[in-house]
TrEMBL record:
Residues 176-439 form the Neprosin PEP catalytic domain. The keyword Membrane applies. This is Neprosin PEP catalytic domain-containing protein. Pfam families: Neprosin (PF03080), Neprosin_AP (PF14365).
Amino acid sequence: MVKGYCSHWLALKGMITLLGMIFYGFGVVEGKMITEKKISEFQRKINRLKSIAVISIQSEDGDIIDCIDIYKQPAFDHPALKNHTIQMAPSYDPTMDSATETTTRTNTLNKRNNEDSSVTVTSQLWQKSGSCPKGTIPIRRVQEKELLKTDSTEEYGRKKPTFCLLLRALNKGTPNFSSNRSHLIMCYVNQVAILLTEGFSYSGVKGDIRAWNPFVESDDEYSTSQISLKSGPYYDFESLESGWAVNPSVYGDKQTRLFVYWTADASKTTGCFDLTCPGFVQTSSEVALGAAIYPLSVPYGLPYQITLYIFKDPATNNWWVQYGEKINLGYWPPHLFTLLFHGNAEGAEWGGEVYSLKLGHPNHTRTEMGNGQFPDGMFGNSGTVKRLRIRENSLILKFPEWVFTYSDDYDCYRTLYVEDYIEDPEFYYGGPGRSPVCP
């Protein structure tokens, strides 16, 4: 049965590759067929933001940051947000969520913070060159070369829909099989190595994510590390995500960059990274979504991390993103969603994701997850998330009552959940992609 499935899958992949050669083989730019009309469409998008910039800042890494009037940001091009009133700040202080944890947990957290040498990062390279005035938001200017890598401005910044097959598990002893699930979901466009929790109603997720710069093999691939809230089935889910990414197809290079991402239909027709499509309403004048993070961790060096918190405002139902425990970046209005409009999320996740067309078959991509090392719970030389927290229906941040790990391909990207002999559980993940154990 497995042999038959694999042969059908390889045949399908061959057809996909052939079609890709047919459709992309006649391209003019980056292997794509770009018409004059399409180029004109891209230029209009770029020129529109340039024309309304209050000031523009040239970053030393080549980025241009345009300071845009907060009321003229791209979010309001979304049909559901035409008459939207900006919520400038959450209706309550989200830093108080941590203060309402139990005394035992708070004391434990403070103790571990004193012992942990990790440094929380909120700085970005462009900030060395200037800052945006109050009443504006910093928007990373999209370069024409980045837009020309996609088929249309509507698709730019959106993840490719995941191709998954739902199979009945043939061997419950496989490392990436969760014993409490009756089916195995095999995905062949992206692979994840995550810690997740389900079974309750989640209004927030938080974590400290070690910041690395993993190798990404091809410009059409990416590697991310993030926290997320999700609702719905795997083929049509709604998702809110934030973390760091190395994503050449969106950002034009292989720097590690801060991102937010959303979708209301598993990325089939909705959603995008950052402000590349209407949806996310930014309120911070300090941080540019999609801008490079610095400094970054290096193996056995000082560990740098970013702290992210996605939470629902109980007064407005807006889904906020907080960065570094002090900067409220902005929010997703509930009107973008269906399940997340009416209620809380069904699951919370922490971990890494790799996208590539070279997954699930021989000649696996060499794109790394985390920092390219398998999980290292001893020295932390791998993808790492600490201070794992969720918020349910109250305004109390807490460790989830139960969690489990999941990996799409344990030979390529692995997970390690550590809870014994430490007072606050930690999650390690990642891998090198193609290797002797992942051919």
